[in-house]
Write a structure and sequence with these properties.
The chain is mainly α and 175 residues long.
């Protein structure tokens, strides 16, 4: 509970969870607001989810070939940030952003789940980190859909909602 490292791990988990749950919940309505049909918007979300499968497999394969997980975390954070910027500012290319975003978000999740192994100096710390990180992380991330929806209700459109997701991805890159 008093470990700075543990809370950094929680923060990393929270940020990727906030983005994932926020985008899964609101991407289809954002795309409909941008002019897509409901079927087109659903397809965009489907592509995002389907490309997550190779994203997870790719990071597993690359994991042993990268000089450190930090390189992977930075790269996948940049990819996710680019996809969110794309959805926000160039929604006409949303299918492409979904391919990029699916790869990035799935890879970040896989990498973040391994962080307790890297951060711990003894096996008992791994257990503590592994309990606190997703426990507190999912608790905070579960707020994303409601908070982003409330933002949409207050502002009358998804512009600020998407900018909040972009900002969250920027903070994730820094973390």
């Amino acid at each position: 509970w008093r470990s700075r490292t543990a809370w950094l791990l929680v923060l990393a988990f929270c940020l990727q969870g906030l983005i994932f749950y926020g985008i899964i919940t609101w991407l289809a309505p954002v795309m409909v607001e941008s002019g897509y049909s409901t079927v087109g918007a659903g397809t965009i979300v489907g592509v995002l989810l389907i490309t997550g499968i190779p994203g997870t497999l790719l990071v597993s394969w690359l994991g042993d070939r990268l000089p450190s997980r930090r390189v992977g975390l930075v790269a996948t954070s940049v990819v996710t940030l680019v996809a969110l910027l794309g959805y926000a500012f160039v929604p006409g290319l949303a299918l492409g952003w979904s391919v990029i975003g699916g790869l990035g978000l799935a890879a970040i999740f896989a990498l973040v789940m391994t962080l307790p192994l890297d951060a711990a100096s003894k096996p008992s710390e791994v257990g503590g980190y592994s309990a606190l990180m997703p426990g507190a992380g999912y608790l905070v991330a579960s707020l994303a859909p409601s908070l982003l929806g409330a933002t949409r209700d207050i502002t009358g459109n998804f512009t600020v909602t998407m900018l909040l997701l972009v900002g969250t991805a920027g903070v994730m890159l820094l973390v």
